[in-house]
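To close the chapter, one final illustration. This time we ask the reader to focus less on the individual chains and more on the assembly as a whole: which components sit near each other, and how the overall shape emerges from the parts.
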Amino acid sequence: MEKFEGGMIMKPYAEMSKEELKNEIKELRTEYRKYQGMELKLDMSRGKPCLDQLDLSMGLMDSLNSHADLSCDDGTDCRNYGMLEGISEARELIGDMMENDPRNILIYGNSSLNVMYDQISRSYTHGVMGNTPWCRLDKIKWLCPVPGYDRHFSITEYFGFEMIPVPMSPTGPDMDMIEKLVSEDKAVKGIWCVPKYSNPQGYSYSDETVRRFARLKPAARDFRIYWDNAYGIHHLYDDHQDYLIEILAECKRAGNPDLVYKFSSTSKITFPGSGIAAIATSPNNLEEIKSQLKRQTIGHDKVNQLRHVRFFKNIHGMVEHMRRHADVIRPKFEAVENIFEENLGGLGIAEWTKPNGGYFISFDGMEGTARLIIDRAMKAGVKLTPAGSTWPNHKDPYDSNIRIAPTYPTLEDITTAAKLFTICVRLVTAEKLYEES
Amino acid sequence: MEKFEGGMIMKPYAEMSKEELKNEIKELRTEYRKYQGMELKLDMSRGKPCLDQLDLSMGLMDSLNSHADLSCDDGTDCRNYGMLEGISEARELIGDMMENDPRNILIYGNSSLNVMYDQISRSYTHGVMGNTPWCRLDKIKWLCPVPGYDRHFSITEYFGFEMIPVPMSPTGPDMDMIEKLVSEDKAVKGIWCVPKYSNPQGYSYSDETVRRFARLKPAARDFRIYWDNAYGIHHLYDDHQDYLIEILAECKRAGNPDLVYKFSSTSKITFPGSGIAAIATSPNNLEEIKSQLKRQTIGHDKVNQLRHVRFFKNIHGMVEHMRRHADVIRPKFEAVENIFEENLGGLGIAEWTKPNGGYFISFDGMEGTARLIIDRAMKAGVKLTPAGSTWPNHKDPYDSNIRIAPTYPTLEDITTAAKLFTICVRLVTAEKLYEES
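The assembled structure is written out below.
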């Protein structure tokens, strides 16, 4: 493959003659078949930690044992019922992680997605702060920065909300559009945000973006920002970290204390599915949530909360732990970025992001190529997130965006997968241009 | 207190003269004040395991450690995302516990109450099997065997359902009434059942009752039985166990395979709040549930599922574990029953149940006394479940039922509490009769 990587002329496709495109296609097909012959079975579809990352948290399994005292600082026995809001030391730790006062934190079960779903479901069945339950309204609209997180969109799709795509930029979503829609339309009840190391771009909202969010003047009194800070401490570089203005504090300063629900979890810190999730929000919102939550459960898993606290000890322990995660996955991100640059740079057929943290790289090919690229990669044994996933209702109107998840495969495998991916991108694009020329 | 217990004449209150009642009240007040002087702080309000019971499960904390292989039998890494329905070995174990095929089992998080709430919430927002979502209907009715479990009623109260009390007997709820209501009224969408060692009586449904449940002919196609088998293996006696016909199998035999959702958890087997909960239901119902659940979560805590499987090994291990629980709490139940018999037997002013398992004793005083008895006990430092709790909307029309939870206090404390309780019962009843005479 040396010839391909090193030898081929990296000429912008737009400048290629029909003959040159034909040659390019021929060479690429040969390369592609080589990969098919390798019988690959690689997965870069989901943001899953790899084995080396999971091994980092095995100490979690020793942080409690049969001789441990399973009492909290305040004397609560974690083994029995109670403590709807979570144990105080877990609220302290997660408060530090989320940059919020522990009193504004409510610890849930193992999944922040579940917390978000429940928040919407309860707004639907019982309304927000005395406003009409959403199930009694004819239409609910929801703002969806795009490209975005498929599982967010899946919830609002499930409830039948009209999802309005809002374009993303490196500073965050289009705030002019958001301010207009939120202030003019009472049917707009919420917005999905991944404000730091966004899914899939890895963008972090600029100071101005956060300031404008906190100063929204919603037409609907039950409008809320769903602020999913899933990657708050998930840096790739020590010296290139993004910083985000803390939204609860900014909302409070702006006189909008109840405007935001902020979500986070330890899913990509310890074990996905066996961590702890949390919401941070204003005292008013928390009071309302607890009045609902007490009908639903007696309390969440306090033993697992204590297990996490004893393992990390404090926020510094958690931050050091995240450095070890970064050491594992940084080379994978860099490998993908280098291969993309090497094989696609200067061709004028693709763009991709280079995040400082999070779990994804967002890739944009030429219009009308994403589905074909993903299909081509699949047929050579590399699984990618399905086309359209980053858009509401799985419909990318440009058919151009692909989410790349570099963390799960080994460095060797992600290198192979990324190379194949670039071949698929070039091949599909060249074929398209050839047909259209 | 010897005089009180041994020396007083146990004459039926109905046969007492006004003068005798006056003397009785005088003596009881003296006794009562003695207890007040003890500055008790005892709680028999909730069905919580005691410390000795919790200690039985400390081995759970050792069943996984940092050297353990956290892979399932099928190779799934429990530390990562996935497996919406739960790991196969947990479905196997809980299947044995619930007497159901593992393929009919879906493992959830830590709380069966949460599973039940979510089941109702999703029926409300999205309907059952293509029927109209309940939020679009004017009226939903729900059958509530009484006395029953307050947290069940709290859910259906929260959703604004009209709760119809159905009288309980030692063989289960009044099936004539249930058959009539279910078959005639499309608004009746469900019924709460605790079929074995019922909360609060400790009754188990007779074979005929279960057979009639499985043969219901609901007017509403989206009617479901909410079969909360919370105490399926929670026996107090080895040689006096209740047996229950397995409802899923009986429904299948009766041609009603989709009629029932069955719930259970390990909350009172290992640690309340840190166990695993599950639903068992038909393949059709499971398919529908999973199509909803995948929007809400990527999966539940598989590490905790594995922890439980490794701890118990199999259903025999779990059953042996429950014998140890029984050894701890049986003396408490017997102490309460003996004190009730000794201090209230033959007075004709109270009845109580003598269950073979579960967590409660149901007590019925004379009409109009429950609130006063609970208040009196509270003022001497003994906390009981609030009056009315065992009825929908906290309204016991007879003001007679009190749920007794003997498990949490020590044997010494529950003995003291039970004695005080009987004094309160006699005092309140005597005062009432005296005033009315």
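Chain B touches chain A through 58 residues (CB under 8 Å). Residues 84 and 297 of chain B are 8 Å apart (CA to CA). With these observations in hand, you are ready for the problems at the end of the chapter.
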